[in-house]
Amino acid sequence: MITVKNAESHLKDKIGEDTDDVKKVWETFKDFCKEPVEGEEDKEILFQCGVYDFTGKELFHLDFVRQFTVYEEDEYSRMEHLHCEFLFKPTDEISKLEIGEWSMDYEDIDDFFNHIENLQEFKIPLNLRPIKTEIYQEEV
Q1: Which 3 state secondary structure label does DSSP give 60?
Q2: Nearest C-alpha neighbor of 113 from the set 74, 67, 69, 64
Q3: What are the residue ranges spanned by the domains of the chain?
Q4: What average pLDDT does this structure show over 105-127?
């Protein structure tokens, strides 16, 4: 079974080397989100995008996130985010896009995924080539 500790390596193995193919990574990410993770009570998935200067330079960030709430001995310990993040040079078309949508607002994970796939914030950057892709897990 997947654990929070090995979730990042598991997802990286599933995606393989072709991390610049946003469509492929999205499909793999969706499958990964349906896999159970030890200790996970609820699926907490975030889709977000926008222009930010987190890197010191303004770039468009397209980010698929799976959030894990970690408990130790039945006590809340922390949250961790596993990101599939794509960075793009901001263009007029994508610079206007900004959104953050959580799966918890939907009855079913597939309803959430269908909603995301119909958003312009998803559709427009989907066919662009990122300048950088990062898959990483962090404590938040």
Answers
A1: strand
A2: 64
A3: 7-139
A4: 95
